[in-house]
Amino acid sequence: MTFLTRLLVALALVLGIAGTAAANPRYAGFVIDARTGKVLYAENADARRYPASLTKMMTLYLAFEALDAGRMRETTRIAVSRRAAAEPPSKIGLKAGSTITVRDAMLALVTKSANDAATALGEHLGGSEAGFARMATEKARALGMRNTTFRNAHGLPNPRQVTTARDMAILGIALREHFPQRYAIFQTRSFSFGKQVFGNHNRLLQQVKGVDGIKTGYINASGFNLVTSARSGNRSIVAVVMGGNTAASRDAHMRDLIARYMPKASTRGGGGLVAKRGVSPVVTSSIAPEIRQAPVPTLRAEQTVQSASLGMLPVPEPRGAQAEVAALAQAADQSETFQEAAGGWTIQIAATPGRDDALSILERARSRVPGPLRDAAPLVVEYRTGGQTVYRARFAGFSGKDSAWQACGALKKHGFNCWASEG
Fold this sequence. Notes:
The chain is of the alpha+beta class. It is built from 13 helices and 13 strands. It folds into two domains: 27-301, 3-Layer(aba) Sandwich (Beta-lactamase), CATH 3.40.710; 341-423, Alpha-Beta Plaits (2-Layer Sandwich). Helix 1 (2-20) crosses helix 9 (247-261). Keywords: Carboxypeptidase, Cell shape, Cell wall biogenesis/degradation, Hydrolase, Peptidoglycan synthesis, Protease, Signal. It comes from Ectorhizobium quercum.
């Protein structure tokens, strides 16, 4: 009787979730055959939702890309800014002015879903939070994520950081296809940092056979989100659940989707649904059909206040992908200018034709001159003149002229150009 009772309770839970999914205004679900691209299930798949910590999937995608391109190594130590250290939980307790290796930062994102590590990694990749947001949104467009806009690297509330269940499935497949050697990091069960051990928030890794990742997420505005990759024999699917009322109901619904649709997935097909990086078109039409524009959910007052407290700058709502990227670029420039003005003295060490070149120079400078640059914030500022675009590699946040000049002196001894300015 005990076994029968448990079975009936579990069945009622699954049926209840399936029956109420459509009635939940935040719910969206999507399941795709990762071999053929056939959509096996879709409910509100193209309605805009808040990604929450699913955002960190893109942070990790860009980190994997930088590692493969040689712009950084897993042993590279990245600086923890005051902004990163001040992020609200979930976090691993990084201190402003400290450093963390790229490897540890990535593990902190995969397991603890640490916001402090995500911000540090995002600032390292993009030169600033706004710079990262632009990179992430441009990458989303390149991957075929037509309804996604990123504003930060962690997923904490921002009313204009939105995505869809279909877009998150595209990102999940892209992570698997483009980085097969690095994807295994999503299977990490626990992560040790200092004297602490952090378990993975994705409990399905231990509960459901065949699940090999990917990421959980939650903020008040989004509900409980989950992207899951699962394989069984020659079958493979990626599934997305967004807007769960609790973590338990979300996980139960995901288990049901896997059980229901894995047997319907094909045993044939070679994958390759998201084309190799830099190649167009990047997404098959079965994954990314024409997207219906859906309204962006409205944040409650307290969530809007939280967004403002995180330092977000208002940006006019864009229309269309190109306008969206342009508006985000403008916001990035405004944000970087604001950070520099607030930080006192700034030094510039290079102006390059590419953002990646500027980031590489900043990383090299910090590794060679760690002392004077310990508390400085690396920035990449885009500047357009005469129809050309250059990227200025800068360090900001010096308390005064003496500290800025000291840093310049140390940089020049190591072969870097440098000039200092106030404001």
